Amino acid sequence: MMLEAAHITCGYGAEPVVKDVSFTLGEGERLSILGPNGCGKTTLLRALAGLLPCEGTVTVLDSDAAKLSRRELSRRVALMSQSAPVYFAYTVRETVAMGRYARRQGGLLDREAPDDEAAVRESLERTGLWPLRDRLITELSGGQLQRVFLARTFAQDPAVILLDEPTSHLDLKYQVELIESLKEWTARPGRAAVGVFHDVNLALDFAHTALLMADGAVRSLGPAGAVDPVLLSDIYGMDVPRYMKAALGRWEG
Amino acid sequence: MKTRGKMALLAALAAASIIAATAVGSVPIPAGDILAILADRLFGAGLPEGMSAVYPAMVMDMRLPRVLLAFLTGAALAMSGTVMQSVLQNPLASPFGLGVSSGAGLGAAIVIVTGLAAGPGRMFLLPAVSLAFGLGTVFLVLRAAKAIDRGYSNLTIILIGMVASLFFNAVMSMLATASPAYAQRINLWLLGSFSMREWSSVWVLLPVTAGCSLLFFRYGRELDAMTFGEEQAQVLGVDMGRCKTLLICAVAALTATAVSFTGVIGFVDLIAPHVVRRFFGAGHRKVLPAAALFGGAFMVLCDLAARTLIPPREIPIGSITALLGAPFFLYIYFAGRRRRSK
């Protein structure tokens, strides 16, 4: 078992945003969380990443996440968020190398771990950023910046990657590429991923398992290929299959 | 040029600024003689024959303590500014802008007005009270920003910091007016001055600056991560709760100690990090030492200007730094805006 969420309840005030959510994530598994805006997807991810205190337990690789130090947790779980503004002009390579923070010894001298250099290089190559490695991140486009954060997440070398709408601001081509590189990444032993996507198609393409949420609670959990269209329409408040078919119709005939 | 080469050049410039500022004054002293006097004091090398007998006293008792105090203050403020900007993810943040300097200055002013500054243990009382006030101010400002703006945005923090700064400066002016006996000294405080140079100030500020710079350097990687926001730093593995408190306390301590000896000096903390990042990139393990060298040299030269431009009068050092800093602040602000709206 890579990750287990048991009865997670959390929020920011008196009223919980996420209510009693449970699921498990096996090795190599990719899970998508679907639901309308404000249903608690991002809040759930933040709780899983240890950024938000919660009731219930998150177990990562057989350890209670609440009992791990921040550094230990970051070696196991990484969260990639929607790209935030950057104010400081680091190079692409420096930014990606920050992913190695949790693996370093730290301290005044802070020597690099022997495999740091190789891990950074591999992450840069995997995301196609090697040619841009000396560029400043303040000069990159939104899409390029998002790839830098993906490379940094890879360099962190966690067991589980959590993705919070990683494809926002990305062109269609890069959306597909990002999903492909994530699929490739999870295919290696000892890895798994949980994603939140705005785009229902993308979410179902990415995942083996789909978790449907509404009002902070789980409405269904099952194979991504067998999501109940009626339930999906109910959750999103519109006829999702009809919308998708109409979109498809535009490309047929 | 490689980083190491640039750093060596900057260190050489800093050393040159110290020698130059010691040489210039009502009686110019040749640089060679200054080096000879230093060598004599440090290693007992002996003084060259034919050197004017007043030189050693002028260098050691009058000019050097002032120049070194200026250098340490500049270095302390520049590093404080660097760390503050990263911790708050805001290129416009600075201890001065957050009211730390003014708060610490007010603490010092109170000590002066109550006459405690003339009492025993004054070398430590002044910095201690300044520290308490500086620390109090930064937490007050952050608390207020959080209460007013749930998003805790950088703009709110800066706005409240400015308000606190102006408010404490106003209180200091009131104190100065109400106690004419100390008015001159407090007014000096409001814009800063190195004219009250004493070796004892150097001996207090030196270990504090050295200690804090080691601490900041140690947290260089954490600071790098923090520039991307607290949440991202945590995701990378940084223990934010501990780091943030520690770093903010160290910044307040360093700023307050410097301010307690020299008064409120703004803008160095704001501009030094920006200038240095242009040449050294954003990584803190390069920016911090470079900021210390640049800030120190800049302050030494500002002080030189302060005491030589309108002799025999002295221009307050804060006026000189603000004269250069104000247009620079606007430049950074509007350049950043243009970039964002592009």
Structure description:
Chain A has helices spanning 41-48, 70-76, 92-97, 116-126, 142-155, 172-187, 200-206, 229-236, 240-249, and strands spanning 3-10, 18-25, 30-34, 55-60, 63-64, 77-80, 160-164, 192-196, 209-214, 217-223. Chain A has 253 residues and is an alpha/beta fold. Chain A has one domain (3-249): P-loop containing nucleotide triphosphate hydrolases (Rossmann fold, 3-Layer(aba) Sandwich), CATH 3.40.50. Chain A has a 6-stranded mixed beta sheet, sandwiched between helices. In chain A, strands 2-1-4-5 form a 4-stranded antiparallel beta sheet, covered by helices on one side. In chain A, helix 4 (116-126) packs antiparallel against helix 5. The N and C termini of chain A lie far apart (46 Å). Chain B has 342 residues and is an all-alpha fold. Chain B has one domain (73-341): ABC transporter involved in vitamin B12 uptake, BtuC (Orthogonal Bundle). Helix content of chain B is 77%, strand content 0%. Chain B contains 14 helices and no strands. Chain B has helices spanning 3-23, 31-43, 55-87, 100-113, 122-148, 154-178, 180-191, 199-218, 220-226, 230-236, 240-262, 268-280, 284-308, 317-341. The longest helix of chain B is centred in the N-terminal third of the chain and has 33 residues, at 55-87. The model of chain B has no long low-confidence stretch (mean pLDDT 86). At the A-B interface, helix 2 of A face helix 8, helix 9 and helix 10 of B.
Q: How would you classify the helix and strand content of chain A by structural class?
A: alpha/beta
Average pLDDT of chain A, rounded to a whole number, is 89
C-alpha Rg of chain A (nearest Å) = 19 Å
What's the total number of strands of chain B?
0
- Helix and strand run of chain A: EEEHEEHEHHHEHEHEEHH
Characterize the biggest β-sheet of chain B. Answer: none
Uncertain segments of chain A of ≥5 residues (pLDDT<50)? none
Number of strands of chain A: 10
Euclidean distance between termini CA atoms of chain A? 46 Å
Which geometry of chain B do the CA atoms define?
A: globular
SS element count, helices of chain B: 14
Which CATH class of chain B?
A: Mainly Alpha
